[in-house]
Each structure stands twice: as C-alpha cells, then as structure tokens.
Amino acid sequence: MHSSNFPRRLCRAACFAPVLAALLSAQAFAAVAPPPLPPGSNLVKIEGGLDRAERKRQVRAHHHKLHHRKDMTRDDSVYGDHEHDDDAGPKGKDKGQEKDKDPKTPKGKK
Amino acid sequence: MQKLFRSILACLAGALFLLAVPVQAQTPPRTLVLYDAPPGTEYEKLGMSYAIMLRNLLGHFDAQVELMPVQQYTAGKINSYDATFYLGAYYNNAPPAAFLADAAVTQKTLVWFKHNLWHLAWEPAYNFAQTRGFGFSGLRGMNAVPTAGNPTPGFFDTIQYKNKPFVKYYAYDSANNQINADPEIGVTAITDPAKAGTLVTVSNPKSGETAPYVVRSGKFWYVADLPFSYIGPRDRYLVLTDLLHDMLAVPHAESHKAMVRLEDVSALVSVQAMKRLTDYLYGKRIPFSIAVIPHYVDSLGAYNGGVPQTVPLSQAANLKKALNYALPRGAEIVMHGYTHQYAAMKNPHTGVSGDDYEFWNIVKNAPVDEDSTAWVTGRLNAGLNELRSNGYNPVAWEAPHYHASALASKAAPLAFATTYQRVVYFTADKPNFAAGPGKDFAVGQIFPYVIRKDYYGQRILPENLGNIEYDISTVDPTSNINYTWQDLYTNAQYALTVRDGFASFFFHPFWLEPSLNTPGFADFKKLVEGISQLGFTWVAPSAVQ
Q1: Omega of the bond leading into B348 within 30 degrees of 0 (cis)
Q2: Subunit contact A96:B276, Cβ cutoff 8 A
Q3: What CA–CA distance (Å, rounded) separates B530 from B303?
Q4: Using one digit for the tens of pLDDT, what is the confidence trace for B384-434?
Q5: Which residues of chain B from 200 to 219 reach within 8 Å of chain A, CB to CB?
Q6: What sign does the CA torsion over A62, A67, A71, A76 have?
Q7: In angstroms, rounded to a whole number, what is the distance separating the alpha carbons of residues B78 and B74?
C-alpha cells in the first residue's frame, strides 16, 4: 500500500461506516427463519429464580410440638432441658455447659 | 553540569507529582439491559424478571443500570453505555433492526444470552461470522421427549467451570407431562480462532456431546442459555456472577469471606444452646450474628393451649440472657422481622413467631391487605424501638422467610442501611400471578457476594449456603427435609469459583435441644471448621465493605 493513498482510504472508511450502519438500520431484510425448536419444547415450564428444592428450604416452620407451653423464663442452662417439669430445681452445671469466659467488653450493649 | 542538575530536579519533581496524585478510582460502569417482552403472551414479563435479576448482580459493581424492553431500542443507544446485555428469553422475538445493525458493528461490550442470535448471525448483510469469528448453528434441548418410562432422556446440563461441574436443575412431572427445567441452549461454533474463543463449555452426559456455553469475540459475548432460571447454590448462575467481572472489566481481587448467623432467635430460645454455640464461636474468635425476632406472638395459642400469647422483648428473660452473653463474645444483632408472623391467622403454619410469614400473605400468594410503605415502616420502627429500648442495636435487616412484598422490600432501606438475606423480586408492586397474557412473575435470588444496591434500593449481604436441616417430621410435619453439613460444605466449595464469593450460612439453635436428638452441635462445628479449612475468612456483618 502506498503511504500517500492511506489518508484517502482512511477517510473513505470513516465516511462509509456510519452510512453502512444507517443502511443496515433502515433496510427491511427478509425475516430470518428461526431454527426448529428441540423435542419436548412444548412441555417445558420455565421458572425464573430459585429452583423448587431451594425454595422449599426457605419456607419451613421453625417450631415443633416440644415447644408447647415452654417456660420462657426458665433458663435451661441452669435448670436443664426439663421443659415441663415444674418441680425441677437448679441442678448445677449441665453437661456441656462451659464456665463463662470473661470478655474484655462490658456485657449487653454494643 | 547545570543541565544535568536541572534534569535531575525535573525527574524528582515528576516522581513526587506521581506519588502525590491519587490513583483514579474506577468509574462505575453504565449498563443497558435489554430484554424480550413479547406483548400479549404468557411469558411477556419473564424477560423482565430476568432483567431484574441481572440488574441486582450489576449492583455488585456499583453499575448504573437501565432496563428496557428490546423492542424500544433506538439506533445508536448502545454507544451511550459501557456494556449492553440482551436477554433473549423468548423464542423468535425478533430484535428491532436498529439493535441488530448496532450489534453487528459495535465495538462496545455486548453480552447476548440464548435466543434470537440467528437474526444477527444468519442475515448475510451483517457478516456476523466474518466479523466475530463464530457462527450460530441452532438450538438444542432435550435429547428426546421424556415419558413415564424414560423420564430423563438428558440434555446439555453440565457446565464445566474452574474444575467444577455445574449441573442444571431438572425434574420431570409425569403426572402432568411437564418438564420443570430450562434445557434449551443456543449452539455456536468457532469459525476463526484468531477472533473468537470458547471460555466455558457445556456437556450432554447422555449423548456424550460438548458445546460452547460462553463464547467471547473481543467485547462481544454469547451465553448459550439464560442462567436465571431454576438457580441454586451449585448452579451455572454462579458462573455468570463470576464472569461479570470480566464482561465489565472490573477487576475485583480474589477474596473469600465467611459469615454465620444464628437464626430465628426469639423469646422461646434455649439459653443453653445459645451459650454452647457462643462459647464455641468465641473460642475460635469467629464473629457471628443473631437473627432476633423482637416481639414474640402466638396469635392463636398454638403452643399455649389455645390461649393467645404475646411476649415483648422486655419480658423475654431467656432471650435477653442469651443476647447479653453473646454480644460481648463477638455477636451482632440482625432484626429478623418484628413478629415473624402475621395478624391472628395461620400464614401458613401456626400464627406463631418464627413459623409464619410477616410481610407476605403466603396463603393467598399476595401482599397482605395492609401492604403499604407506611404499614411496613411502622412495623420496622416498632421492632427497632423494641430492640433499642432494651439496649440492642441491630446492624442489618432480614425479611422473614426471605419473602416480603415489593413495597416491604422498598421500605427496608428507609430503616436499615444493610440487609442480610436472599430476596424475592416481583415484576409489579401488586403482582397478578393468574395464568394468562401479561401475568407477573416472582423470582427468588441468592447472591454470592455483596450487592451494593438492588432493584429495591437495598444493600444486601449474602447468605448463599443454606442451613442444616434434619427430617424430624414425626415431631414437626413441616420439618421433612434433610440438608446436611456436607451439603453446605459442598456449596462453599462452589462459592470459591466466584472470585469474591462468600460462604455464608445460618443455623437454628434449637437443633441443639436434647429432646430433638440430632447431631446439630457436632455438625455445626464440622461445617465451621470445614469452611475455615477451605480458606474463607470469618467476618462480622458490620465489617463487610
């Protein structure tokens, strides 16, 4: 390519691109025939978002019969898990209960 | 000598200038999301629901997002955006000529999903294959029509990404002869490897075939399906959440954080269980959060012998004891509803806090009758007042059952700077789900990373692994699912494929109650230790940027 022709060619390309774009935009092409749908397409039910198993995990209830008439003031870390035993008194530390660690920040408020 | 001296001075001045000038922060991308909205069809709004889901993911990048039905596209619009996405959700919804003409020549980022690429690729005037280096071959779906005798004939269901298989959801309902899946993909083929390449493949295990799933030609991307249907924690949706970084050229650093939340903690909570969990996490110096239901209501007396019961936080002695023990040991509070139930009705279980929906009538599958910004903010403020008057300050909001009306979700940012949840999105504030043309869609979405601003204006911290479940249906008929700590651990492994993906899960303290006889505590510890060993760093919700 001769260097003296390059600016002229560049100018032609720069002028032609928007013209081509405008022509492509304006021209009504014959409709493109779509590809055939695969077998069973008519049976497909599309659902956006979470799949059914994931949705089911979100909607479960969080209580059970063993919460019936639970005493909400009876600290089971002191009295144990005797939810309906009104005569049970303090039993000392329950199995698995650890000694309170002493954190540096004051209790309660952030 | 003087010249040399001046040269040295000039160099020094330049170096000092470079040090003083702050590095330019990346400008958030401006994006356009075009979607199919064929009028008068049953799936008219499905594309919009996908567009909302993509808009939410773009919120991870602080993007400005405009959503638009593709039929409204006007010539040259693509040039006003850093990236344009076209969601080809509807078969043979021909994009307007103006869009096709721009798509044929644009040098801006354009990401095309699934359908209607043939209108561009098969029209000779657009010279698509020559320009982009790949061609469109056709559609593939099920290998055969499923039947009761052959319910799983197979399809291109396995996307391979970062050495992990992402298998698309599939379920065949033989009773109704219905395929609950999204099996169709657009099949492409590279014609010029110098111009285009396959970044991700999808395989068809039953036929043994492999096809391109994500193809890239410079700034033109093609994704073979629409990864917003039937999503889950191991779904190809995660592949898109990661690739968006490359599509938008936003180089987030590799970073993997973990969060744990103790869930549905109300007046009924076991202090012993909370103390055991707190001591364990504190012993490992793992910060955690507690999803607190401030105001306990048993509206129908389901657990009180038929006598309605209300326990405000001021009277919830065990709950306060548990919170006061946990807060100085690394806990933060998330407000999880005001009462986590609705009125004096079963919605749908018992009318008891922790069981039922609060901001959605799940029985009617509609907003509750009172649904309004004022009603919702009233409840949010009531919960905040109850917490704060007892000395507790929540750092985030979590909608009960992750399911609130559009107005409720839009109201959340008025009271909370941060939410910590999954979210359900709707194509209308008062959706009409009745079958027929123009019906609305509701889509639940999980996030593997922080969303700075979603469709409803919420900042969202992710919960993406799920929660441990045991089948105790003999005790509680609704608890009939097993979801093991190994399931959540596997989900965490998948989350690692997202370069800044979180491992975030929640856990119900009642699994430690001896009467339920589950290995809850042991499994909780195995999961926490497993996530740590995967290399995730535990963070508190308030510390997440």
Answers
A1: yes
A2: yes
A3: 37
A4: 999 999 999 999 999 999 999 999 999 999 999 999 999 999 999 999 999
A5: none
A6: negative
A7: 9
